[in-house]
Amino acid sequence: MYTSVSFHHVIDCSSSTLLFISGDAQLAPAVQFFVAGENTVFLIIIKGAGLHDVMRQAEIEGKQCQAQLVAQRWLSYIADVVRANNQRGEALLIATHLDEAQANGTVDADRIKLRELCRHLANSYRHSVTLQTMPLFVDALNLTDDRSLVWSRIQQAAAAMLQQARVPKFINTCNDWMGEHANDPSSAKWTTKESFKRMPLFDGLKASQITSGIASLNKLGYIIELPSGHIILKPSWFAAAASITLSPPPSETDRLTKTVHLKTDRSKPGYIMLDALCSQLLEVRDWKQLQWSVNAATARKEAHQLVEFLCDIGVVLVDPSPAQVLV
Amino acid sequence: MLTYLHLASNHFTELRLALCRFLHLLYLNAEFNARLTIHQKVHADAEPRYPGALLRYLKDCAAGETQPLRNFRLMLLGEPKVGKSALVECLMQVPGGWFWSATRLKHSRARTQFPIILPYTIERTGAAAAGRLHALITDPPGTRSC
After folding, report:
1. Inter-chain contact B110–A239, Cβ cutoff 8 Å?
2. Are residues B45 and B102 in the same domain?
């Protein structure tokens, strides 16, 4: 077994270069692993309140404002993902904080700049990404009109993307079944591929249909098939575990956030023994997605298994030698 | 009499089940169609190892029922603290729940630390259950640069 393990930190989404951004959970290591998928509607979210001022200021300084930079970077990333995975995708630009813009009296000016930005982005990426030319400016907390408006535009984008594609009924049935499985807190989090094939969602299907069902579930993101052959049945659980980074103690900006701070070897930050890692993972109770078993022995087995999975996707690296490990 | 159909290295997104009406068709090759829908592609790509696999699969499908594809993924991308998670929370409020008496969510919420992946069935007035779209919502942590 391992003598020690270490954490592989952050992967830059656009260029795959390795970065080391200590404790910045906004760039969680697993983000890239979980953001690809077939038939995806991408919502690019920027802050709309004050957009007019920041864009004007950036123009004066001969630069691009932060919102534009972020939108461009994500559109470039989407273009790469869509091309690399031969997937279909639609993008929609959504500006938030409409309430703040209304309070400040900047709604009209901000809306003009938002439309201008969206036109520019749609034009710049017209050969690689389908970005809807009309952006939305909403209050993300509004449960009535704005919620309905956003869902309406999402459905339009989804309909345009799916283009009335038809699939065998069992594909939809499998997707629905896994959706319910993910919402059931008592259901299994992972299984082996052979066991998965015997689960009720595949009852009555031929082997070829089961193969198709698994491929479809995997591509749509309902399951994650690991290189080891294990199937993650609850991607949200796995995403939580894979995203635990060597976060610093909570900062003032975290406020409500319950950060996770794993303690590693003081002399060699990033190094930790397997048992110590499992113990620390088991102490994480604030993240409901981790859902440890009540039974201590079972929970420890789960933690060991989880570390194996994290090794499988390269989030945790195993020391190849019996001594120490390299980040 | 069509017995062999070579569709490899093309840009098909879907193979019509009507192909199965060619009663004498024995061999169908659709390798290297990168955009082919995944449930067919997995068999098209396996053709060299399992000859006839794709055609057999299509015949199995033709014998059963087909439906419009209802599932898609919804992914929110952007900077931290612009309201992605608030928007997800808002979008996922189930009609008929407590919120019909409320018009706005509370403002404060914790920063998202890892990708949240949640299935959601979109309600649509008058739409039968079988016709509703299903979104798999993915809300990754906000990213200043990517």
Report:
1. no
2. no
User: Which residues 6+ apart lie within 8 Å of A52 measured at CB?
Assistant: A106, A109, A110, A112, A113
The reply to whether B83 and B128 lie within a common domain is yes
Pairwise CA distance, residues A249 & A291, whole Å: 23
pLDDT, tens only, A192-235: 999 999 999 999 999 999 999 999 999 888 999 998 999 999 98
A83: pLDDT strictly greater than 70: yes
What is the residue range of B27's domain? Answer: 4-63
Q: Domain coordinates of chain A in residue numbers?
A: 5-24+243-318, 36-162, 169-237
> Regarding the domain delimited by A36-162, which CATH topology (the fold level of the hierarchy) does it fall under?
Rossmann fold (3.40.50)
Query: CA–CA separation, A82 vs A84, rounded Å?
Result: 6
A13-20 contacts: CB < 8 A, separation 24 or more?
A13/A77, A13/B143, A13/B146, A14/A73, A14/A76, A14/A77, A14/A80, A14/B146
A97 backbone dihedrals φ, ψ, rounded to 5°: 65, 40
Instruction: Say whether A70 and B78 touch across the interface (CB within 8 A).
Output: yes
Query: Radius of gyration over alpha carbons of chain A, in Å?
Result: 22
Q: Residue B117: which H helix or E strand, with range?
A: strand B116-121
Nearest to residue A9, comparing CAs of B81, A253, A26, A36?
A26
B134: number of CA atoms within 13 Å, CB side?
23
Mean pLDDT value of segment B34-39: 90
Query: Of A7-11, A102-106, A262-266, where does mean pLDDT reach its minimum?
Result: A7-11
| ipTM greater than cut 0.90 | no
Same domain membership, residue B133 and residue B75: yes
* pTM recorded for the entire structure: 0.81
CA atoms within 13 Å, Cβ hemisphere of A77: 26
Grade residue B99 by pLDDT with cuts at 50, 70 and 90: low
CATH of domain A169-237: 1.10.10
Quick check: A272 and A193 in contact, CB under 8 A? no
Q: Return mean pLDDT, chain A.
A: 81
CA distance A3 to chain B (A): 28
Chain A residue numbers touching B65 (CB-CB < 8 A): 168-169
Please compute the mean of the pLDDT values over residues A173-190 and round it to a whole number.
Answer: 91
Query: Has residue B122 been placed in a domain?
Result: yes
Do B128 and B86 share a structural domain?
A: yes
- Does some domain include residue B145? no
> Does one domain contain both B113 and B54?
no
> What is the rounded CA–CA span in Å between residue B119 and residue B73?
9
Tally of CB atoms within 10 A around A163: 11
Which chain B residues have a beta carbon less than 8 Å from that of A237?
A: none
Q: Select from B60, B68, B72 the Cβ nearest to the Cβ of A209.
A: B60
